[in-house]
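Hi support team,

I'm filing this because I wasn't sure whether my run with NAP finished correctly. The job status page said complete, but I'd like someone to confirm that the output block is well-formed before I use it downstream. Pasting the exact inputs I used:
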Amino acid sequence: MTIPALPLGKAADGTPVEMPLLGFGTWQLRGESAYQAVRDALEAGYRHLDTATMYGNEAEVGRALKDSGVPRDEVFITTKLPPERAGKERRTIEASLRDLGVEAVDLWLIHWPPHRGRSVKVWQAFIEAREAGLTRAVGVSNYDNGQIDELTAETGQTPAVNQIRFGPALYDPAVLAAHRERGVVLEGYSPFKTTNLHDPALTRIAAAHGVDPARVVLRWHIQHEIVVIPKSKTPERIARNADITNFVLTDEEMRAIDALGRR
Ligand SMILES: NC(=O)c1ccc[n+]([C@@H]2O[C@H](COP(=O)([O-])OP(=O)(O)OC[C@H]3O[C@@H](n4cnc5c(N)ncnc54)[C@H](OP(=O)(O)O)[C@@H]3O)[C@@H](O)[C@H]2O)c1
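And here is everything the job wrote out:
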């Protein structure tokens, strides 16, 4: 089994964009530890990296990718625009591309909704960046349904992805359905920070599969087709978190984990 990918439509050059369901998160990784963690992640098999202008590590992520020898077109790269850069979108993505050492990213997200009234203008600049081939897809982060609908209504273009805080304890089928209805891929962040990894439901299921609860949480996301981007600076955890293709959660186990969201 390999990690599946979700379609995000087509890039400006007509090629399909595919987003792997498992990515490697890089928030709070800086300098040499960011470089080493990304090297370890690529070695462990991750083919999706999540960074942001705000993380201050794009140069290390780019250098790790280059030194890894993994071909650029085999890795999905996301970066994000800090909302305070509204009005300076083009300069910001050009700096990201320079630091990452790539010609285009795969996904560019508005990191957080800009102050009232500025969201649509930023979104228009995002659409232009996609048309110019600087990013293959565009999306948002930390948006609610109403904020997504405003972008669609004003521009006719719906974000391909919404990256939001997510995990079993935040599971709400209505949130998932609202994204699906709009054709927006739900990408969850902070899967471990939002989860009690000692919860008896998770430890029971983990024991049944001979894995740790962290992997159960990641597998649960994948089976719901929710993109998940765990972060770690620990080599053993980086490798273990990617090792989630050789077990499958049963329907009963999926429902038991879903129920953590109703507690
Ligand atoms: N769009 C946004 O606003 C936003 C906000 C937050 C995060 N994100 C993205 O989402 C990514 C993930 O979220 P996150 O970094 O907040 O949190 P996370 O991935 O939920 O948790 C990271 C923490 O979990 C620990 N950990 C990793 N693997 C583990 C395992 N197998 N067992 C137990 N603990 C484990 C890590 O420790 P060690 O590192 O010490 O191993 C670290 O302390 C970020 O890195 C970033 O790329 C986006």
